[in-house]
Every structure is written in C-alpha cells, then in structure tokens.
Specification:
This protein is of the alpha+beta class. It contains eight helices and six strands, in the order E-E-H-E-E-E-E-H-H-H-H-H-H-H. The chain starts with a strand and ends with a helix.
C-alpha cells in the first residue's frame, strides 16, 4: 500500500481545504521527510485525515464527531492510495443539519472508488460503511489496528518508547505490535535460545570426552600408519601378480577348450573318411568290371 495524496476540509485547526500530493515535488524528490510545526498546528490532524478516510476512525482517543473545525458546517477527508497495482480513493464526509453551525452533525458518508483504466475518473465500488471497511481491509491487508501499529505511531507512544526502560519498553511493544504478536516473538526467541543452549551443552560434553594424544602416541600412530601403507603397497603388488596369473589360467582354459574342439573335429573327419573309403572301394570294383559289363549281362539274360 502506498498513499499518493491526502485532502481534508475543516478538520481541527486546519480550516478550509488543504491537500498534500506525495507524488509531486518537493516531497516526491526525497526519500524521507518530516511533518513539523508548533503544538496545535495540525500535524496529527493530517494523520487523522488518513485514518478517517480509510477507516472512519482516528487513532487518538477522540470522538470523530468532535474533529470538525469549530464553526464549520462540513468536514471531509480523502485519501488516494495504490495497492495491488490499482489506484483507489477513500472518502469520509460529515456535515451539520441545515448547513448551520449549531445544526446536529449528520453522517458520516463513506465511499471507496477505483480509478478506471486510462482515465482520471474514479468509479465507486463500495459506499456502505461495512462494505467499505471490508474492501479496505481486503485491498490493503490491514485493518484499523494493524494500520495504526505498522504505519502510524503516535507522538506520545514514540516518545515514551525512546525514553522508557527495558520493562516499560516491553509493555509499549505489546501495545504497539499487539500482545499476541509480541508474545509469539518472545516465545519463539525463548525456544530458539533454549535449543542453542542444548546444542552448546552437547558440544561441551563431546569436548570433555575427547582425549588429547601425547607426542609419543602421535609418533606411534604415525609409525603404524607408515607400516600399513607399506603393507598396502605389497598387497597391491601381490594382487597385480595374482591377477596376471588368473589371466594366464583363463587363457589356458580357453586354449584347452579350443584343442578339445579340434580333437572332436578330427575324430568326426576320420569317421567320414572311413565311410568314403568304403564307397571308393565299391567304385573301384565297379570300374574294374566295366570292360566285361556286356558279357556279364548276356550270360545273365
């Protein structure tokens, strides 16, 4: 939420129409500014105008109907602010009956409007008091109490806070931030502190259990380490040799399997050769009888 401008009419000592544009120079050109003036000049009235326009209430212990300038017949407060990427305008108005200074105060009338796109006009979106309160709370995320605690810190509270002691400052923090929030912060801080103390105690116990080694013990450990390193080197060399032997054994086993296969193939070839020799003998006998083939046929016939 960002307040862009404030307008007021006949509020307390600020008689007539007054306005502040926070988007214009010189205010817009500085990051920080102060509202100063003599007592009764109307400094707090500017803050009253803001809360009147937004919430129809003032942050001081004062009746809103008593805020109208003495002798005036109308009072008004208006705030234009930016929130959720939109511009809104809140208005609060009261007046005296028959427009006479002794007339009974009428109102208030409350309105909440939103600026229409690409124009300087505002369209009313709420004008019932309850609807305005609900919409302002929803749009800004702040109700009246939260707004006063987080945005407005009255002069009395601020001065008292700076000058107070530790106990009084705690009470003022409860008043400013709300008892519930302050209690949660205090409880969270207490629990966090307790957790850290427990961690520290555990570290102390661990530290007490640590044994500081003597120079002789350190020397012995270094010698043991060196001996283990030498053994490790020897084990690595032995492992390399065993791996080499294993590779040779695996190669021999493969060659033995290959030789067995060759022997099997030779045996098969010998059987085939014997079969072929029988067939060749029969062929030779057939060829030897070829010249007398016709004679044998004639005798048979």
């Amino acid at each position: 939420m960002k307040i862009l401008s404030v307008k007021l009419r006949n509020l307390n000592s600020l008689e007539g129409d007054n306005s502040i544009d926070f988007t214009a120079s010189p205010i817009a050109d500085v990051g920080l500014f102060a509202i100063t003036g003599k007592t009764g000049a109307g400094k707090s009235t500017i803050l009253d105008a803001i809360t009147l326009a937004l919430y129809g209430r003032i942050h001081r212990n004062k009746n809103v109907l008593e805020i109208m300038t003495y002798g005036a017949v109308q009072a008004m407060a208006e705030v234009v602010f930016e929130a959720l990427g939109e511009e809104y305008m809140c208005q609060w108005t009261v007046w005296r009956a028959r427009n006479k200074a002794d007339g009974k105060i009428q109102g208030p009338i409350r309105k909440l409007s939103i600026r229409t796109p690409n124009t300087d006009d505002f369209q009313i979106i709420a004008e019932k008091i309850r609807d305005v309160d609900e919409q302002v709370d929803k749009i800004t995320g702040l109700d009246f109490d939260r707004f006063c605690r987080s945005v407005l810190l009255s002069q009395g509270d601020f001065a008292a806070f700076l000058k107070s002691g530790e106990k009084d400052r705690s009470l003022l923090l409860e008043r400013i931030t709300g008892t519930e929030i302050y209690s949660k912060i205090s409880s969270s801080a207490f629990n966090k502190n307790r957790e850290e103390e427990q961690k520290l105690e555990q570290l102390r116990i661990q530290l007490e259990g640590l044994e500081i080694l003597s120079d002789e013990q350190i020397k012995t450990l270094e010698e043991d380490k060196k001996e283990l390193e030498e053994k490790a080197k020897g084990a690595i060399l032995s492992l390399d040799k065993k791996q080499e032997q294993l590779n040779l054994i695996q190669r021999k086993n493969k060659l033995d399997k290959d030789m067995d296969k060759v022997h099997d193939d030779l045996a098969n070839w010998s059987l085939e050769k014997e079969k072929l020799n029988d067939d060749l003998g029969k062929l030779d006998l057939h060829l030897s009888t070829r010249p007398i083939h016709n004679q044998i046929l004639e005798k048979i016939n």
